[in-house]
Design goal:
Elements lengths: L10 H12 L15 H14 L6 E5 L5 H9 L2 E6 L2 H10 L4 E4 L12 E7 L8 H11 E13 L5 H9 L7 H10 L10 H10 L3 E6 L3 H11 L1 H9 L1 E8 L5
Parallel strand pairs: 1-2, 1-4, 2-3, 4-5
Antiparallel strand pairs: 5-7, 6-7
Helix pairs in contact: 1-7, 2-9, 5-8, 9-10
Length: 253
């Protein structure tokens, strides 16, 4: 009898396992955890500016991770549900927010009912999507007519002039297994060349969203993060292509 050497694993399994591995120390990394005080205030201002008053609306936090964006949105007054593909991440989110419901599912295949939420938010999810066109169609399906979408993301691949300058004058460092795993995943996702805002916005429009707007003014958040990030990473963050994109499901489509 011949041995079976194939595998049913795919890229989504690799992505889930990578973030599960990161879960234990995820909140220790500046830029992932939202510090109370100035940083939380900056994030709250961004969300209010784009989403308006919460008024108890049903909000889905996609790729909720350890629950930091869910925590933010709950503070603002939304009725929050979180969803993540990693059970290890969800364990930490549930411990942090025991009164919030968290589901384990793929953000590209949520299995949630049609028109079941009023607002969808994501942070640093879009650049990891395997099939963004299918994902955006799924999110369009989940939103009630007139519902809002807010994405916070960036191009974390293309090197800015400052990143190239720092690399030129920095001593070479050994590449860890975690970095190799990250690079292997990144090479296979849709936005392997970098998630530029214009490309993301175009795919949202193709999925049926309207009022698609790009906001690149994340400076208040970056200033608030500076003390935790250190001068080098703080400077890099300010010149990277980071953005928020808002969109809306039409009232009738």
């Amino acid at each position: 009898m011949q041995s079976v050497t194939g595998s049913n694993r795919d890229l989504r399994d690799d992505i889930r396992d990578y973030w599960s591995m990161r879960a234990a120390g995820f909140d220790n990394d500046p830029g992932h955890r939202i510090a109370d005080g100035a940083e939380m205030a900056a994030w709250e201002h961004l969300f209010r500016r784009h989403l308006g008053p919460a008024e108890g609306r049903r909000l889905l936090d996609l790729a909720s991770g350890t629950g930091e964006i869910s925590r933010l949105c709950k503070r603002l007054g939304f009725a929050v549900t979180g969803l993540d593909w990693s059970e290890a991440m969800l364990e930490r989110a549930r411990a942090k927010l025991p009164d919030v419901t968290f589901h384990q599912a793929d953000a590209e295949r949520t299995m949630l009912p049609n028109a079941s939420v009023d607002v969808i938010v994501t942070r640093h999810l879009v650049w990891t999507l395997v099939d963004p066109a299918a994902a955006f169609a799924e999110w369009h399906r989940l939103l009630a007519p007139g519902g809002q979408l807010l994405l916070v993301d960036g191009d974390f691949v293309s090197k800015t002039w400052m990143a190239r300058l720092f690399a030129r004058f920095s001593a070479p460092t050994a590449v860890s297994e975690r970095v190799k795993q990250h690079q292997g995943i990144l090479s296979r996702v849709h936005f392997s060349g970098g998630a530029q805002a214009d490309a993301v916005a175009a795919l949202l429009q193709e999925a049926g969203f309207e009022d698609v707007q790009i906001d690149t003014n994340l400076r208040p958040i970056h200033r608030a993060q500076a003390a935790q990030l250190g001068w080098r990473k703080s400077l890099l963050r300010r010149v990277e292509h980071r953005y928020a994109i808002t969109a809306r499901r039409p009232e009738a489509d």
